[in-house]
Structure formats: C-alpha cells, structure tokens
Amino acid sequence: MIRFTNVCKMFHGRPVLKDFSLEIPSGHTVAILGGSGGGKTTVLRLILGLLRPDSGSIRIDGKEIVGLPERDMVPIRARMAMVFQGSALFDSLTVRGNVGYRLYEEQVFADDIIERKVVESLCFVGLEDTLEKMPAELSGGMKKRVAIARALACRPKVILYDEPTAGLDPINTHLITELICRLQKEERLTQVVVTHDLDTAYRIADRLIMVHRGEKLFDGTVDMLKIADDPRIRTFLRPQEVLTAPGCFPDKDGGIRVVAPAMDKESPA
Predict the structure, then answer these.
(1) Average pLDDT for 131-147
(2) DSSP three-state, residue 129
(3) Which end of the chain is more exposed for a tag (fewer CB within 10 A), N or C?
C-alpha cells in the first residue's frame, strides 16, 4: 500500500503539492489526472524517494520513507519500477540489453536466468522477436512496450507510469492500455499512472485522482468523476462545453476569464 498524508512540497518558493493525501491499496491501479505543472509527476518522484517532501508522511507497505537514509531506500525501490514518458531506453544497447539492464547491474541472478526473464517479459508485450534490435529501429509504440518489458523483468510489486501513451497513435495507445490492464488482472501489480489521456484513464483505473495546482480536487471512480460539478474538473473533462465563447480561457482559480478581441485599427483615410 502507498499512503500520502498531508504532504507538502515547494520548488523555489512555489507550492507544488499542498496538504496532499492519497491511499493506494496493493493490487490496484490509480490514474492521476491534471494539467501540466499541476504536481502529478512530483507524486511519482516522491513515491520513489527521489524527492523529499517539506512536510507530511509517505508510507510504502507501512514503512515511513520520509527522512529515510538513501541506503535504506534501496530495498524499497527494488520492489518498484518506472516507465518513463520518453521510454528512456539506452541507445547504445540492444533490446535484450535494455530489458535486462537492471538485472545485469544487480548481478543477483545467473546470466541464463536473466535471459529467461528478459524473453518472458518481451513475450508479455509481444516483442520477443526484437531481442537484437537497437532502439533506433523501433517505433514509438514499440519503445514504450520495451520500457514496460524492462519494468517487468525485475518482477516489481509496483509500477509507476509517466504519460505512458503520450505521442502514440490510437493503435499503440490501445496496446499500452491493454498491457496495463493485463498487468493488474494477471499479475495483481499496484500501478500508478500519470496521464492526460482521459480515455486511457477511464479504461485502466480502479480509481481516479485529479490534481490542480498542487491541490487534490477529486478522488473517486470514473462514474463519480464524470458527474463532478467543480468548474475546474468540468473544464478539464469537457473544455468544448465550458470554453465556448471566443477569447474564453480557464483562470487559475478555476473560474473563466474572457479576453476581449483587439479592435482593428482604422484604415488610413
């Protein structure tokens, strides 16, 4: 289980998370929604212990990680894996080398066992025939699937995703979404997915959390989100309905502001 209690985090004097609390039960998939710069990716970094909050508590499987020495974070991180927005594959390594990278670095298993884990992970994402390919030979969607295979190879209990479908066409978006759903159903992994993609969030998540300027606006099911009446939530979900007037923009406080069109200059006489 992952639990945040009244977590606050500031960058350069600006609050990024304000009294932020959440609870993610083991084996559940939670999607974190919100606009750019709202604090979503900061949540992932705090879970990994790459950032420390200014105040508040973060517990992973009951263990408080705030203030934990770096050496004590190592076994906690060993149970997690991250799928980055840009896939973050090593250009100089083959798919085999990328998927097995963490296992080779840790040197816990013999090479033949690592090879089996690499192949099994690639089979799960449907790319077992790409072992000797280089990242430059892969499409964007294939790179994302290799990144998921790399996460799976170390048999994590938790996978964190940062915009896993960003920049993908509808077919590859569907494939990634299906993989996330399968991982929950077949492996019972705990998954935290940061995304702007509402369709993906609706399909994968047991629960949705929406963050706006560091504040948690919503925590509930898909059906509950769709009927929420907070204007900030409605603007995010259905901008085509809320921002209908020309020059209409969402304001930072959740309201609406309208910018009057500039008057045309009079033509010279």
Answers:
(1) 93
(2) helix
(3) C
